[in-house]
Design brief:
This is MFS general substrate transporter. The chain has a single domain, classed as Growth Hormone, Chain: A, CATH 1.20.1250.20. It has 21 helices and no strands. The protein is an all-alpha fold and 451 residues long.
Length: 451
């Protein structure tokens, strides 16, 4: 009976994959890398080679709609290290590092934990509505941070932890899925370019916040200034992102079948576990690098720019490895980058002087970026079904959300009020190396099952 059920599910999945592959697309030119045409692909995050081609062919600069949306949501969220430093020293100084890190981890948990819902809504044809709703929620919540009062933890938690998390969730997975649908080839590179909007936003917003908070009008107007930039980019991004029509295979019953199949596929499950384990440790330096630099007596200017250095390096880390992933294999590249990310994490213990901190930020930023940007292409690659990719990607990002909730507070508790750095660094690095090993097993099982 079980075998008959499995055969029936597999037959349904094969039919769904064929329907998904049969969706009508617009071809332009001879390059089939652009499933909806070069213009649509570029507007949602195309790569630099086609950018140069577009400049030669068009009289106006193509605007990256999806890139701008990632810039708006991931930028302020991954700049949380600035908030962590300011809250712990001034705004929420009555609370522990672990208490404050819960704000950042909750926003990531909600952002990724609601991925399945956002992905389902994408599959059912509500992508535009979801993006607009997410943009509105994120913008309003960000402005609400400027209205919070010092030492009122719940106010910051509600606006930044819950509000930004919900807005992020409604934007992140739909934009990732849009790019996944636009590209037939070079999918990893296209998705890497898209998520590079996040660290670019983090660089700009972390510098803005540090300068305006410490050398300008103060915290409230610093947050409002960033909020105005975010609102403008949201408007432009939503206007320009190209959304493909829903697949004929994207129905409620078909989505349920796809979800059932992926939850019974061991390589896919191991990839989810790998993403969960990696996320437990990868954000530790992002949250604590400014606290680390300040505690070791480094200059204030270098302390403020440390997070920006990580995020600048992360931009290249989200593009270069993804370029090679399309040539040498997504899983191969992901395994190597996650393992190196863990090894580089130990170098944080040597970053107690200027040169050491700069070198660490550059190296960690690069491999942190690759760990983040290669995970979703790995999920898409190893998935046993290619239908209902919104739901598949939503399932893929959910374990990352859970790890985002508990990872930073666990690291903060291990770090302790005495800031015993070797404990926190060891925890973060070991879990990253473990994640690389788990993904290696997933790759082995997938290749064995297809050979």
């Amino acid at each position: 009976m079980s075998n008959d059920s499995d055969s029936s599910d597999n037959a349904k999945v094969e039919r769904l994959d064929k329907e998904a592959a049969a969706v009508t697309v617009v071809e332009s030119g001879s390059d089939d890398s652009y499933a909806l045409g070069p213009g649509a692909a570029w507007r949602t995050g195309e790569y630099a080679i086609f950018f140069a081609y577009s400049l030669r062919q068009c009289n106006k600069l193509p605007v990256l709609g999806g890139f701008l949306l990632q810039f708006c949501v991931a930028g302020p969220v991954t700049a949380f290290g600035v908030f962590q430093d300011f809250y712990s020293s001034t705004w929420l100084s009555n609370f522990s590092q672990s208490d404050i890190s819960w704000i950042g981890s909750v926003q990531l948990f909600i952002a990724f934990g609601l991925g399945t819902l956002a992905g389902r809504l994408y599959d059912y044809g509500y992508c535009r509505h979801v993006l607009l709703a997410g943009s509105l929620v994120f913008t309003i919540s960000f402005f609400m941070i400027s209205l919070t009062q010092p030492q009122r933890y719940y106010q910051v938690f509600l606006s930044q932890g819950l509000g930004l998390g919900i807005g992020y969730a409604l934007v992140y997975i739909p934009t990732m899925t849009v790019v996944s649908h636009h590209f037939r080839k070079r999918k990893a590179l296209g998705m890497g370019i898209l998520v590079a909007g996040g660290p670019l936003g983090s660089v700009i917003f972390s510098i803005m916040l540090n300068q305006l908070v410490h050398h300008g009008p103060g915290f409230r107007w610093a947050v409002r200034a960033v909020g105005f930039v975010v609102a403008g980019c949201f408007g432009l991004g939503n206007a320009l992102i190209a959304i493909p029509p829903p697949s004929a295979a994207s129905t409620h019953s078909n989505a349920s079948t796809s979800i059932k199949v992926i939850w019974t596929d061991l390589p896919f499950i191991l990839t989810l576990i790998s993403g969960f384990v990696a996320q437990l440790g990868t954000f530790f330096p992002i949250f604590y690098i400014q606290v680390f630099a300040s505690g070791h007596g480094l200059s204030k200017s270098l302390t403020f720019y440390s997070l920006a250095i990580i995020n600048v390096s992360s931009i290249f880390g989200r593009i270069v490895p993804n370029f090679f992933a399309d040539r040498f294999g997504v899983l191969n590249t992901f395994i190597i980058c996650v393992g190196i990310n863990g090894a580089v994490g130990f170098l944080m213990l040597l970053a107690s002087h200027t040169a050491g901190l700069v070198i660490f930020c550059i190296l960690y930023g690069f491999f942190f970026g690759s760990t983040i940007s290669l995970y979703m292409p790995a999920v898409a690659y190893i998935s046993p079904t290619k239908a209902n990719m919104g739901a598949v990607m939503g399932v893929g990002i959910t374990p990352v959300g859970v790890a985002s909730l508990i990872g930073p507070p666990i690291a903060g508790a291990i770090l302790g009020s005495e800031l015993i750095w070797w404990k926190g660094v060891t925890f973060a690095s070991v879990v990253l190396i473990s994640a690389s090993g788990i993904e290696f097993v997933a790759r082995y099982l997938r290749h064995r099952s297809t050979s």
